[in-house]
Predict the 3D structure of the following.
Amino acid sequence: MPKIKIAVLGTGGTIAGEANSAADVLNYQDSQLSAADTLAPLRPYLPGNVELLVVQISQLGSENFSTDTWLGLADAITRLEETEAPDGFVLTQGTDTLEETAYFLHLAIKTPKPVVVVGAMRPATALSADGPLNLLRAVQLAASPLARGLGVMVVANERIFSAREVTKSHTSSIDSFGSPEFGCVGYMQNGEVKLHRMPSRHHTMDSPFNVAGLHSLPKVDIVYAYAGAGCESIRAFLSHGARGLVHAGTGNGSISSVHRAAYREAILRGVPVVRSSRTGSGLVSRNGAMNDDAFGSVGADTLSPQKARVLLCLALTLTQDAVQLQCYFDNY
């Protein structure tokens, strides 16, 4: 059988965490084990033709990730593609912002090869740690020719998700990851890939976004709506250099009259405003909760506030025009 080389990039997180007791799944230190350490017990269960190239990028809980971290990961994958030519990639990281990293890479990297982002909800020392099986399945998926061309995927609890559609929905359950609007794209069945559908939007090779050579991304902030919310956060973000704002609105991305005045000021200053919803699922309809055409705002489609921020960060590297931005949100 021909050799299959999989590059595994480690960044830390709960999947590399340790607790004082095997019965403790909550009080632990993340990012203690290297990627090589977490992979070592799995090698007997991998096919003999799978060769692992392990690269330790960082030891960092993903709550500490930034847009600079994303750029660094994209650059690392690109360099490995050029120098080592692996057949697929696995990225291990903490689950707190895993969906944001995955979606960024889904839009930014330029490879048809499988890229799988994986984490764990319990530390590696737990009696029923989910990390080892998640990581094994991630390597198996990255090694499968069926995964080629699917963009960036997330594997969790035997399910395969597209990066655009996956979200973390529970603070501690091992079944935390899901895709409430679209469902998973497939399953891992004893290491075998079972696909049921393709990702819903353009990505990777069909994405217009290119981060090669970028040292930073435009600053985009999220404004959370709630009953009685004032406009202080909007004005603070603008005064600190925000290039774009994402509104995490009530319902269908509704904007209160107080927020509306502050957002109008932002738009007149050339700062785009994207309407998303804090509800956790559903489509934010253009011209639904408000007249986006007249106001100059952009609808986030089915993207959560945090993922709308990812797309807006990238889109602003190409344009500030609201019409073109809406086109990106309709297609990516």
DSSP finds nine helices and 14 strands in the chain. The CA atoms of residues 48 and 77 lie 24 Å apart. The domain at 4-206 is CATH 3.40.50.1170 (Rossmann fold). The two ends are 37 Å apart (CA to CA).
